[in-house]
Amino acid sequence: MVATRAGAASTSRARSPCSASGRAAIRSATSCPWRSASTSPAPPIPTPSTCATAARWDLAKTYVEIAEFNLQALSSHIYRHHYVAEPFAVSSRRQLAPSHPIHVLLRPHTQHTIAVNRAAFNLLKKPGGVFATLYAGELRETRNIMRRSYERWSVREQEIEADLAARGVADGPREYPWRDDARLWTPVLRRFVADYVALYYPSDAAVRADAELQAFVAELQADDGGRLRGLLPAGELGGRDVLVDLLAQFLFIAGPGHAAVHFPQTDHFTYVPAFPGAAYRPPPREGELVDAARIADTLPPLDVGVAQFQNNQMACYRFDRFGDYDRYELGRVAAARPLVARLHADLAAVEQEIERRNRARPRPYPYLLPRLVPNSINI
Ligand SMILES: [Fe+2]
């Protein structure tokens, strides 16, 4: 789908705040006017065999990467992790007493999420800011990627196995490090959360009878609250299994899920020629010369490229490490100490297994190594 969007990108120019260099960004990834022209056939998707030269194929791939840059940052990263996590951070503080066991569990995994999201939200509205400067769309179009993500995905559809099945990648390709390493995390998180919930809720009835917990979950879903769609199988928190599934999925989103979409940006998006945030020339017409100069002219101008490098380099910051609860109340709960110790042991085993896999992989995949995964979304 991404290839189609980019390959068939609009050839219309859009004024952009980053046109100070004399070039205006092309809205290649975030808006597709050709889609509404239902009478026009979609342009063909370029392939190595349909591109007359290597340069033409390189340029086709560049447009795909621009689309990927925008979708990854706005949908996969910011919306599906930062803004799905935010209601948990807000409503756990509003509806659960600080000493409530679920508040205590969530506190490390919601640390600084509200602050970082507020900063991002302000930038998403700021003319001349990073989102207005680096990305392919104008601010309204860039925000629209997030809005459409909200409309298209429910929270339960983001659960790993549901997501893999929906994308048809549950079993193949054979080499898919994110999928394979994420599957190491899910049983570890579920066991930790299940054991923790069992400390405080002896039965399903106890879950149903906890008024604070019910208010928390209701606010996560409320139209005037978190507005998280499809959060629970029947829309209700009816028992312990549902609670465990919900919390385990949240811990994944806040920890390894976010780490896997955030930290690769520093490794990849800092190399602007491979991952430009926007195109500054429309895709070439049939027969139009494509050479190195044409490719360079399509890439962001130097000042924009420098800003893209700086922003993605700064993003490489880790506040803490997943399962490090020393600074939180959770680290002082005596009954939870054996559970936390086992979590640490389980994560050490995950670390070992990923290290073993990385030695055999064509290219190491470090992003789900537990030592590189923070507790929360704070950057
Ligand atoms: Fe992030």
TrEMBL record:
Domain Lipoxygenase: 1-379
Protein name stated in the entry: Lipoxygenase family protein
Pfam families: Lipoxygenase
Biased composition (Low complexity): 1-16
GO biological process, one term: lipid oxidation
SUPFAM superfamilies per the UniProt record, alphabetical: Lipoxigenase
Alphabetical keyword list: Metal-binding, Oxidoreductase
